[in-house]
Amino acid sequence: MKRILLYPSITNLQDPAGDTYLRFLRKMIFSMSLVRDDIYWYCLIPRYRDEYEDKTRLMKKMLRFANTKHIEIVTPAPPASKGNVDYQELKKVRWQDYAIDSVFLNLPQQATDLQTYLADHSNLSPSFFGFTHFQDYPNVMQCPSLFRMNTVGILDMDVCYINTQSQKDQAIEQAGRTFNVNVIRKLNKIIKVFPTPVLPVKTEDASIFDHDPLRIVVFNHRPDQEKSFPMFCAAIEELWMKRKDFRVWVPFYAKRRVPFEWMITDIPKETKQEYYYGLGRCCVGVSPKQTGGNWTVSTADGLLSGLPYILYDDQAYKQLNPGADIYKNRRQLNKLISFYLDNSEY
């Protein structure tokens, strides 16, 4: 099990749901859980006083997953908290209870302080990694002391990702005015460029579906109207006991009902464009036995979005896609789902 500590850096306390770093962390934890089940996240959650006291609850809600644990520490409200590591608050945490392998952060200057603190007050020696986008803020690049502080922090990290090659070149060129050639060589090795610009400044322009199809099985029918939905759930429960490297999206699952452990319901679907786009980026869809309605329409929605379907052995479905994979029982369904999950090129 890989255990990673997430250090907080919250700037938008008025609207935590709109904070770019929180949104990124939520997407990262969610996406990683789809491909790996051996990662556990320790999330340091800022606990504010006075008018911001209720914001802690909202932040914990955004980062609430089965593989996360929240550790609250008292933190002053931004901008006082930005970039500062409060040693007195960290001393209140029983670090001997946490076997931390790595620390993830997005403010490099925090790496030096955290590394020093953990070395002096615990037996932990985690690796440090993360990303930085301080090149997007001219005041950091134009202020020698701020830039120097960020650069020293990067030197204390194992890997620091950056958005583009041009930003890396700019950082290396500016660092060359202060540091010697050996430091620059080390800095060049530590800074890595994202394969694709997955962290734009305006994160609302990005989507977790913008890359390879995720390991998500889709049941885009109406569970409250579909009598065969319990059979589908039973099949997924059996598969979940064998493997946990996938999730199931049920777009029309009733909000008042408690979702299953393997289920996700918060993928955007408010507009037809979002709904069809989400379908097209998933792995495979499942069409149930028709006992309560005509589900060929919802199946057609997925097929037209480019989503392959595993169809129940029914003549109505065969008219939609005569060459589709079909099933008659739970064993056959799980065998086909596993095949699709393991053979993305199929």
From TrEMBL:
Protein name: Glycosyltransferase subfamily 4-like N-terminal domain-containing protein
